[in-house]
Description:
79% of the residues lie in helices and 0% in strands.
Amino acid sequence: MSEQIQKLIVEGTLYGLVFFSVITWILIIAKGVQHFRLGRQNKRFTKKFWGASNLDAAANLATETGPKARLAASGFSALYVVDGESPDLEHSWDRQELLERHLRQQIQKEYESLEAGLAVLASIGSTSPFVGLFGTVFGIIHALSALSKAASPSIDIVAGPIGEALIATGVGIAVAVPAVLAYNFYLRRLKLASADLDNYATDFVNLAQKSGFRVTKPVGKISTQLQSADAANTATPALGRAA
């Protein structure tokens, strides 16, 4: 392998690590904004939901946004019936089982949305040191090749190339550390958010049980709310979907 190719490999490794670093910080910022925004939406909806006089009044909070609002909309869509109307196949189920299925499916959608991008952070955090080491190995090979061809070998000939090669390892570690820390942080936030949705779903089922698992008051914009939820989940950045 020629010295020029070895040098290109080292440079390509460094450029690759810089690219990984850019992706990492984009995801860190994007996930931070996502969790901050969803946290505010959940807090606002929770206050309005528990402030409603009854379940029928809470069903009209369809204009609210956020994971809990979408979860509630999914639940209300399972409970909503029109008196005198023949139920379709979906609503012919036991109403409690139907409600729990709707809530479980919506929780899974919200989980997938919050999880998007974490696999990328984990992959960068686990592979970056090895990518840097790969560049270092070829850098040392390049330095030793130059030493073997020198008329009068000396430490000065290899000191510069080896120092440059070791930079790749340092950069790899520098890229990996933020990715690993961010992954652990957002994974913890994901678990907390998932537990919060599970607790809310349990409370929702208990409230629905008191009303006989029926919401007879027309629920406006529930289908629109659920469609908006699907659009929001599919609007996850391409980096996140790559996970």
